[in-house]
Structure to design on (274 residues):
């Protein structure tokens, strides 16, 4: 009886092998499809419009403005509206600022001009301006003179000349650390402290943007922090370019790689006058 069924064994084995191969092929195909979906998602390009807030009262009065805040001037509001008009056809999937009123209100004014759906503004503390410690609210000259004197160098008179001198003598990192060093209260942020919060905020921003489908993102921050953002995502990309009120800095990111398209572009803000 056993011999009668022996001839069936090769057929059964071949059938099992064929089924196994088909299952493996299907699994591999499914795996490839899933991998393709993941790769497509990761490959989505995000364009970031990084804007400095509009002109404020502290800017007008030449006062140190970091964690402290002051409202936008009439010009500052008009600058923000001009940027909004210039970007009105850009469909933003997400918008960000910190909790500082000058940043948040600039973002609101920009988005109010937009012709597309307007996203809610997400506040990330990492986008705050530098903390200048006890120099907050004082004149910029008082802080800059304290830094200049610590260098034991002859420095020029005049607010603009002194600032240009410091920017020429020191890197962004050195300048931030000098401010922290000469701050009487020792509460001003160091460069590494600022960079640390930026490096937490940027991935969080990107995650929110990707969850919204990827595309265009608006970030409103401040003149002292934007260079740190650039250096954090693309080391060596910032070379002292001026970051004026309501200037637009454009970045693209794909597969985690950032490309800087422009820095401190004031084309839109320059359409309005003091």
């Amino acid at each position: 009886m056993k011999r009668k069924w022996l001839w069936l064994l090769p057929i059964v084995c071949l059938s099992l092998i064929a089924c196994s191969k088909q299952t493996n092929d299907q699994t591999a195909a499914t795996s490839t499809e899933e991998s393709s979906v993941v790769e497509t998602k990761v490959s989505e390009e995000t364009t970031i419009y990084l804007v400095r807030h509009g002109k404020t009262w502290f800017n007008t009065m030449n006062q140190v403005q970091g964690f402290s805040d002051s409202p936008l001037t009439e010009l500052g509001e008009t600058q923000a509206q001009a940027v909004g008009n210039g970007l009105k056809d850009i469909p933003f999937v997400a918008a960000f600022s910190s909790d500082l009123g000058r940043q948040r209100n600039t973002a609101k004014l920009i988005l109010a001009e937009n012709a597309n759906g307007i996203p809610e503004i997400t506040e990330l503390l990492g986008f705050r301006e530098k903390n200048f410690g006890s120099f907050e609210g004082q004149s910029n000259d008082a802080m800059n003179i304290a830094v200049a004197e610590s260098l034991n160098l002859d420095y020029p008179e005049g607010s603009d000349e002194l600032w240009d001198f410091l920017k020429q003598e020191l890197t962004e990192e050195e300048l931030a650390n000098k401010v922290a060093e000469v701050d009487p209260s020792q509460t001003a942020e160091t460069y590494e402290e600022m960079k640390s919060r930026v490096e937490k905020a940027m991935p969080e921003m990107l995650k929110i943007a990707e969850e919204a489908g990827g595309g265009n993102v608006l970030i409103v921050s401040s003149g002292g922090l934007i260079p740190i953002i650039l250096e954090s995502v693309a080391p060596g990309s910032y070379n002292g370019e001026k970051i004026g009120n309501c200037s637009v800095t454009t970045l693209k990111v794909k597969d985690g790689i950032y490309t800087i398209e422009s820095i401190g572009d004031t084309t839109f803000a320059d359409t309005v006058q003091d």
